[in-house]
Amino acid sequence: MPEGPELHLASVYVNKMCKGVVFSGPVTKSEVSKSPDVPFTCEAYLITAVSRGKEVKLTLTPLKSDGSNQRAKRAQTDQPMDIVFRFGMSGYFTFTTEDELPKHAHLRFHSKENPSRVLSFVDTRRFGSWEPNGTWHSDRGPCIMFEYEKFRDNVVTRLSDRAFDRPICEVLLNQKYFNGIGNYLRAEILFRLKIPPFVSARTALEGHESEDLNENEKPVKTEITARKASHTVKKKAMKEETGDLLRLCHTVPLEVVNLGSGKGYDPTKQDYSDFEAWLQCYYVDGMNSIRDHNGRTMWFTGEPGPMAPKESKSPKAKKRAKTASDNDYTDDNKKMAKGNTKKTLSETKPSHHQVTGSNRKQLEKDKVKSGNGSPAGSQRRSQRLTRQRNLTK
DNA sequence: CGTCCACGTCTAC
DNA sequence: TAGACCTGGACGG
């Protein structure tokens, strides 16, 4: 599910499905979950949701009781409770009958109906979490979708922070500034502007102090400032055509929201084809991809940019489960045996960018493929998606 | 069967 | 800046 748009769509889903539904009793948790118990029990309560960036907050609101049953009341919560959820890689909400409860439904809110229905937080990989009586995480910035002015201000006023020394594609994942952007959004946003992913963030974001194009034009005195000015003008002209980067951090996620409920990123879903059609770059056949400095796959087209990871930067070595008698290879040989494109690519076809993608077919023909640790490989992906599409028809 | 990959944080050398 | 945290689907042998 989970970048900003999916989190928001989840909140929309909860509000839609739970409107008018009365919940009752305790909030139950799966045995295996490490997230905290939710100390809330109430004879009758409502559930609403709101999202901010990559978090969703549920509010449990007790309904007024008539006070006739003092004993039952004592054990109950009569104050509203907020629970803040983070979805990790696989979290989502679903509202089902008890019978239809999915595997990995780790937190459950039971309706008062008979038979009861259940709002559940499902999270296959358990990277997600919740926090009873929680608040928006203090280290996360304003929501890119629904706090646009604050988001923008938070970036432009802190451009001098060291955080912006890094490549733009990596900074876009920094939730302190870009709360809601994730791996597919960064690719789509940079692709729209054809900004090389590994240019410095500060450079890419310069001149974003205002959205008004053509204000603050100043008289030029020297040649140097004249050149600077003309550079600025050019930048502004470019922005006029394409929209600036910060604005796209807002509008591109909203496009996904506007695909509608249940249409975000979820390859396992029936409806995945709409989202897939919306993608222009991420995992798209013909695009390039390389791993960034954090080992995340960056999808792009054109030049990677000057701050692209160097060859020496080892792609993530496959760690294998350790076995007692594992002496066939040295560590290095293991890595090679496991394969890892960056090395293989560079040895086969020297290039200072470890670019995969359009080169990939050729390289595969050249037998680079075995041991190819290339991130994803667009060809493979499209095959996989084709299969899924066929399966869902 | 085994390997690689995935929409994201976290904390510990 | 590596791992750690997890499950499961696609693919290769």
TrEMBL record:
<keyword id="KW-0963">Cytoplasm</keyword>
<keyword id="KW-0456">Lyase</keyword>
<keyword id="KW-0238">DNA-binding</keyword>
<dbReference type="InterPro" id="IPR010979">
    <property type="entry name" value="Ribosomal_uS13-like_H2TH"/>
</dbReference>
<feature type="domain" description="Formamidopyrimidine-DNA glycosylase catalytic">
    <location>
        <begin position="2"/>
        <end position="128"/>
    </location>
</feature>
<dbReference type="InterPro" id="IPR012319">
    <property type="entry name" value="FPG_cat"/>
</dbReference>
<keyword id="KW-0234">DNA repair</keyword>
<keyword id="KW-0158">Chromosome</keyword>
<dbReference type="InterPro" id="IPR035937">
    <property type="entry name" value="FPG_N"/>
</dbReference>
<dbReference type="GO" id="GO:0005694">
    <property type="term" value="C:chromosome"/>
</dbReference>
<keyword id="KW-0206">Cytoskeleton</keyword>
<keyword id="KW-0227">DNA damage</keyword>
<dbReference type="GO" id="GO:0005813">
    <property type="term" value="C:centrosome"/>
</dbReference>
<dbReference type="Pfam" id="PF01149">
    <property type="entry name" value="Fapy_DNA_glyco"/>
</dbReference>
<feature type="region of interest" description="Disordered">
    <location>
        <begin position="298"/>
        <end position="393"/>
    </location>
</feature>
<dbReference type="GO" id="GO:0003906">
    <property type="term" value="F:DNA-(apurinic or apyrimidinic site) endonuclease activity"/>
</dbReference>
<dbReference type="GO" id="GO:0006284">
    <property type="term" value="P:base-excision repair"/>
</dbReference>
<dbReference type="GO" id="GO:0019104">
    <property type="term" value="F:DNA N-glycosylase activity"/>
</dbReference>
<dbReference type="GO" id="GO:0016829">
    <property type="term" value="F:lyase activity"/>
</dbReference>
<keyword id="KW-0326">Glycosidase</keyword>
<dbReference type="Pfam" id="PF09292">
    <property type="entry name" value="Neil1-DNA_bind"/>
</dbReference>
<comment type="function">
    <text>Involved in base excision repair of DNA damaged by oxidation or by mutagenic agents. Acts as a DNA glycosylase that recognizes and removes damaged bases. Has a preference for oxidized pyrimidines, such as thymine glycol, formamidopyrimidine (Fapy) and 5-hydroxyuracil. Has marginal activity towards 8-oxoguanine. Has AP (apurinic/apyrimidinic) lyase activity and introduces nicks in the DNA strand. Cleaves the DNA backbone by beta-delta elimination to generate a single-strand break at the site of the removed base with both 3'- and 5'-phosphates.</text>
</comment>
<keyword id="KW-0378">Hydrolase</keyword>
<dbReference type="InterPro" id="IPR015371">
    <property type="entry name" value="Endonuclease-VIII_DNA-bd"/>
</dbReference>
<keyword id="KW-0539">Nucleus</keyword>
<protein>
    <recommendedName>
        <fullName>Endonuclease 8-like 1</fullName>
    </recommendedName>
</protein>
<dbReference type="GO" id="GO:0003677">
    <property type="term" value="F:DNA binding"/>
</dbReference>
<keyword id="KW-0511">Multifunctional enzyme</keyword>
<dbReference type="GO" id="GO:0008270">
    <property type="term" value="F:zinc ion binding"/>
</dbReference>
<feature type="compositionally biased region" description="Basic residues">
    <location>
        <begin position="381"/>
        <end position="393"/>
    </location>
</feature>
<dbReference type="GO" id="GO:0005634">
    <property type="term" value="C:nucleus"/>
</dbReference>
